[in-house]
Write a structure and sequence with these properties.
This protein is of the alpha/beta class. It has two domains: 210 residues, Spore Coat Polysaccharide Biosynthesis Protein SpsA, Chain A (Alpha-Beta Complex); 113 residues, no CATH class. The protein contains 15 helices and eight strands. Strands 3-2-1-4-7-6-8-5 form an eight-stranded mixed beta sheet, with helices on both faces. Helix 2 links the parallel strand 2 and strand 3. It holds the Pfam family Glycos_transf_2. Keywords: Glycosyltransferase, Transferase. This is Glycosyltransferase.
Length: 332
């Protein structure tokens, strides 16, 4: 008899994730809904990730291990989409935990709401030890109308590892776009919002881990730049214009964005958003984000919050950057 495809494909890409991987895998294997395949892709890890994946694959036939050289997260996510056999895909990260009822709850929502192509959930924040982590972030939107409000005002959309979506819909939109490293999910949600309805279930179906080594902390400025450009592309599409980022392998420098979009002021708006986005980011204030902030001020950008950032730089042990920012603020 032919192999019957599962109802759900779970997609997890891992790179050097041995620290939390076993806990994440076990949270999936403990789901109350059991008709799934679990695709775990080791993206060229140099630690014990592959051995952990192979060990669990030997214990549970639902796990499909993919072990290969490093190609990056976006390539990995698109490969997982291509390999998935189910019509619905659940995302999962190797450092988070899913509640036992997650799949059952989200699948029920999609079955009852065929006009929705993506559903996430609220998350419970935890630290690296699994203890409660107090986050100042806002709750994710619940209804599609709340998503539209947040897209217009820059609010949060989805917690990526908590998301479940219809595979064909995502593939029809081109999957994850290569240019948006470290914010590939945001770009995807903004594209999907024009062709389907989005929702989050107001239950904490996933535990989201915060720790020093996670991507969002190591690549803060690149993430901020990508997010700002993703929104510019979103506005282009909403205006009926072509999206010039769709076929790019990487985004050009900010100074070239006006030419890319064929519109003046794009680069200035992106610099402003990045400058605002890194005000409280130690990584962003220490990398290229700092120079983007200075350019924003020289262009006549708002000084709001910038003087407090001078003090923040001093506390971070960056007196020279604090002096540079003081000089630019005082002369512009």
């Amino acid at each position: 008899m032919p192999d019957t495809p599962p109802a759900l494909s779970v997609a997890m890409s891992v790179y050097n994730g041995e620290r939390f991987l076993a806990e994440a895998i076990e949270s999936i294997l403990a789901q109350s809904f059991t008709d799934f395949e679990f695709l775990i892709l080791d993206d060229g890890s140099s630690d014990g990730t592959a051995d952990i994946i192979r060990r669990y694959a030997g214990q549970d036939q639902r796990i499909r291990p993919i072990i290969r050289e490093n190609r990056g997260l976006i390539v990995s996510l698109n490969q997982l989409l291509a390999l998935a056999r189910a019509p619905i895909v659940a995302r999962m990260d190797a450092d988070d935990n899913s509640r036992p009822s997650r799949f059952e709850t989200q699948l029920r929502f999609l079955a009852e709401n065929p006009d929705h192509g993506v559903v996430g959930s609220w998350s419970q924040d935890m630290d690296e030890n699994g203890s409660l982590f107090l986050s100042k972030g806002r709750e994710h939107p619940v209804t599609h109308e709340q998503f539209e409000h947040n897209m217009a005002h820059g609010g949060p959309l989805f917690c990526h590892p908590a998301v479940m979506y219809r595979r064909d819909l995502v593939l029809a939109q081109g999957g994850y776009h290569a240019a948006f490293r470290h914010c590939e999910d945001l770009d995807l949600w903004l594209r999907l919002a024009s062709v389907t309805r989005l929702a989050n279930i107001p239950e904490r179906l996933i535990q989201y881990r915060h720790y020093a080594g996670q991507v969002s902390k190591r690549h803060a400025t690149e993430q901020q730049i990508g997010a700002a450009v993703a929104y510019e592309a979103y506005h282009q599409r909403a205006a009926g214009k072509d999206d010039p980022t769709a076929s790019l392998d990487q985004l050009p420098p900010i100074d070239q964005l006006d030419a890319l979009f064929g519109e003046q002021g794009i680069g200035q708006r992106v610099r402003e958003k990045v400058a605002r986005g890194i005000l409280h980011s130690p990584v962003g204030l220490r990398d290229q984000g700092f120079d983007i902030m200075l350019s924003h001020i020289r262009e006549g950008g708002s000084h709001e919050g910038m003087w407090r950032t001078v003090l923040r730089l001093v506390r971070l042990g960056e007196p020279l950057r604090a002096l540079r920012l003081t000089t630019v603020l005082a002369t512009n």
